[in-house]
Amino acid sequence: MKFANKTPFDALCYQMVDKNDAEYNVFVAKVGFNLIQQENGEYRVDIQDENSVPLSFQDVYAGEMNKSAVLVESDLAPYKPYCDVVINATAYAPGGKACSAFSVKAQLTSLDGEITLWSKEVDIIGERRITRNSLTAHHISQPKPFLSLPINYQYAFGGECVIDKQDKRASRIDKKYQLTEEQLIAYGDFPPCNAIAHTACMSNPIGLGFCESWYLDVIKEDCWSAPRIMNVGRALSNSHISKMLKGKMDLSDPVYSPAGFGFIGRGWSPRLAKAGTYDQEWIDNRHPHLPHDFDFNYWNGAPEDQQVVELPSGLHVSITNVRPDGEISFNLPNHLAFILLRAEQGVIPQPMKLDTLLIDTESLTVHLTYRYLIKADIPISAAEFRYEIHPLTLLDKLYPRSSV
């Protein structure tokens, strides 16, 4: 099958094999828009048709790989069951006046505003400290006023406790908290490969607020930083802190879930569990194919409350407190990305599914990733990626009526 890109946008065709060993042709394309602020303060979108945004072939991190938040995930996912809604942003205090806390709310609606397609709100909080107190209630200090904060998982609940072998304090660690030989082998060459003791919040190992008593005892501290981004209406209680210090957190509790709008790490909980089981049976009987318990929802990188069953191309976006001057809102046009299949019986247009909506309120860009799958054994001679800005005229263009 031949593949041709009939647009100025980046597109690619590749093959994938699912967990039942069926082969598919996967078509992926990416379309970008610039957000232009007008004199009245509102934003309009300009499509990037001259300097089109390229497909991403690898994950892009905010800092060090696996130790910082993912800003952009690879577009080469074979299939996403849902549409990821992802926002990279900085939170700004309302009115440009320092305050101790405020919220950021994002919402997608139909173009007429009648139907809410998705919404989410998070609390942004000033710097705080948690103080351990085994005799009375644990204490969280009052938040300090602030002007802005990146909405990044390094400020959400999470983190890790790690002591290296070379650390002078390593001798203080009780044997039951030290890593076993099996755990050290599992780390391999990956950090923290030099650790003698290590525990982490597996739902967000790069965050703030996670701590356990053994670690505080070793470093001889009783205070540590509290998370600054929380799910709206959720707060760390004395009970939550006590359970955490004892290593008895329930990661299904929303208080312990990392709050934000960005991509969840591939190795974080609960995403990692969806990758399936890679044990000796898999090595003996399935390698290199996917395990039978692989869940394709693994490829959805957004938090679960940012995964939408389906989104239209045309929609209205509004996000509060992510620009120094306040809210940002704009309309995405109702364009159509599609694959034109050429077969013996003629041409067959197939709409592509929008499966990633990535908004960056700092760079003022919007990236839309579309995907379409078709079984590899279907007799198709050629396929073309096309993009129509006037979808209602598509059928007339593909199947012009003959004049009488």
What can you see in these coordinates?
8% of the residues lie in helices and 38% in strands. It is mainly β. The protein has a domain at 1-89 and 283-404. Strands 2, 3, 4, 7, 20, 25 and 26 form a seven-stranded mixed sheet that branches. A hairpin with a 5-residue loop joins strand 2 and strand 3. It comes from Pragia fontium. Pfam families: DUF2169 (PF09937). This is DUF2169 domain-containing protein. Residues 22-371 form the DUF2169 domain.
Fold topology:
Layout: E1 2-5, E2 10-17, E3 23-37, E4 43-47, E5 60-61, E6 70-72, E7 83-88, E8 90-92, E9 101-109, E10 116-125, E11 129-131, E12 139-140, E13 148-150, E14 157-158, E15 160-164, H1 181-187, E16 195-200, E17 208-209, H2 213-219, E18 223-225, E19 229-231, H3 238-245, H4 280-285, E20 307-308, E21 315-323, E22 326-332, E23 336-343, E24 346-351, E25 353-360, E26 365-375, E27 382-388, H5 394-398
Parallel strand pairs: 1-27, 7-25, 14-17
Antiparallel strand pairs: 2-3, 3-4, 3-26, 5-6, 7-20, 8-13, 9-10, 9-21, 10-19, 11-12, 11-18, 15-16, 21-22, 23-24, 23-27, 25-26
